[in-house]
Amino acid sequence: QIRKKEALASAKKMGAIGRDFLNIGDGFFESNAQNLKLIISMVRKWQPTIVLANAEEDRHPDHARAAQLTARACFLSGLIKITTKYNGRLQSAWRPKAVYHYIQDNPSKPDILVDITGYIDQKMELIKTFKSQFFDPKSKEPESPISSKEFLDYQIARAKVFGRYLQVPYAEGFTSAKPIGVDSLFSIF
């Protein structure tokens, strides 16, 4: 309930148009038909062009499992023979054009870098919205790798390192399981 409240607060701060909770478990969820269909249903509901998912490899095993589950569901959501319903109505097949993965705790070489200089303060405020998970000087919970104050400093440091490649103050890195296509080499700087 605490995480749900924090997620809703974060979504509101971001100006998100919606936020769904699938309740597939924490620590024990698996890639199975039931969980895949839940995610397929959400992909078909929202019909995103791009899906941003967890890191494909990370310190927390849930992140990699969620990344694989999401990427697989995004592919399967484009198959017409897989049927799903939302609010009792049959959904149409929909496949996002791309699935990109965040770089989370484990250092990874990015396939894509996005200049986030104008959004770094907002990013850090959104992270801090999850008070139960990240640094909170008033917390009575045991310290974890992500609840230390240094974790927030690491987020800034990594954004600076990625920004250096683009010659901007801050950038966010993403990985992609498949090659990234562009219309022109001139659109890449």
What features would you highlight for this structure?
two-stranded antiparallel sheet; 38% helix; 4-stranded mixed beta sheet; 189 residues
Structural class: alpha+beta
In percent terms, what proportion of residues is strand?
5-15%
Form type: globular
- For the CA atoms, what is the radius of gyration? 18 Å
Mean pLDDT: 93
In percent, how helical is the residue content?
25-40%
What is the helix tally? Answer: 5
H and E order: HHEHEEEEHHE
In order across it, which strands form the biggest sheet?
1-4-6-5
Biggest sheet statistics: 4 strands, mixed
Number of strands: 6
What are the low-pLDDT stretches, counting only 5+ consecutive residues below 50? none
How many angstroms separate the termini? Answer: 44 Å
Give a structural overview.
It is a single chain. With 189 residues, this protein is an alpha+beta fold. It is 38% helix and 12% strand. The protein has five helices and six strands. The strands form two sheets. A four-stranded mixed beta sheet has the order 1-4-6-5. It has a two-stranded antiparallel ribbon with strand order 2-3. α1 packs antiparallel against α4 and α2 crosses α3. The protein is globular, with a radius of gyration of 18 Å. 18% of the residues are buried. The mean pLDDT is 93.
Q: What's the SSE blueprint?
A:
Layout (H helix, E strand, L loop, with lengths): L1 H13 L18 H14 L3 E4 L7 H16 L8 E2 L2 E2 L7 E5 L9 E4 L4 H10 L19 H18 L4 E6 L13
Parallel strand pairs: 1-4
Antiparallel strand pairs: 2-3, 4-6, 5-6
Helix pairs in contact: 1-4, 2-3
In short:
The chain is of the alpha+beta class and 189 residues long. 38% of the residues lie in helices and 12% in strands. The chain has a four-stranded mixed sheet. A two-stranded antiparallel sheet has the order 2-3.
